């Protein structure tokens, strides 16, 4: 790895250290990729990550790139082709492009003439792509396409770590929510038992009956029972 590429990788790592959420990190990666490629004629970048059972994560270096990404990753766009086929796609001139239905659409009027969509090297079922845009037609010839691929490769190393961290945080938050939900339900069951002199099973059935009648989640019914007794009851778990 050259000194320049080592510097790029270190810059991506610094972004990860400073970002508190995945979305902020992805936005930083898109901006940094655009800065790295700016000397070569690139004027914007977009990043898209897709994972099983999770919403698509995306970020752009600027508003114009966001408009280009909407077309590139829209129905049948070149960005989707790069994701699906796991190979780089180059658009030499958006003004005359006819391979993808709906692309470039209004993006061509935005002044961007060429783009490259490059797959990211992620783990498991995750897949992603880095898109680079330029006002210059025919910019992404093979040599320039390889340059974009190198930047995508450097970003991928840190992205893999970022996605691992985000997956752990997602599981931890789900567990936190489950614990809090279970606690408020248990509290409500105890309150109903004390008020009605009934068994635990009978108290649970009362909560379920109200939940079904009102068409609301049983946790919401339980929270209402707890709140009615005392606003001082807390179900917060310190991390």
**Low-pLDDT regions:** none
Provide the helix percentage.
55-70%
Number of strands: 5
**N- and C-termini, Cα separation:** 40 Å
Strand content: 5-15%
CA radius of gyration is: 25 Å
Q: State mean pLDDT (0 to 100 scale).
A: 84
Shape: elongated
Q: Report the sheet with the most strands, covering strand number, pairing sense and barrel closure.
A: 5 strands, antiparallel
Word description of this protein:
Strand 1 and strand 2 form a beta hairpin. Helix 1 runs parallel beside helix 5 (142-196), helix 5 (142-196) crosses helix 6 (200-214) and helix 6 (200-214) crosses helix 7. With 239 residues, this protein is α+β, with helices and mostly antiparallel strands. Helices cover 55% and strands 12% of the residues. It is elongated. The longest helix has 55 residues, at 142-196. A five-stranded antiparallel beta sheet has the order 2-1-5-4-3, sandwiched between helices. The model has no long low-confidence stretch (mean pLDDT 84). The two termini are 40 Å apart. The protein has seven helices and five strands, in the order ααββααβββααα.
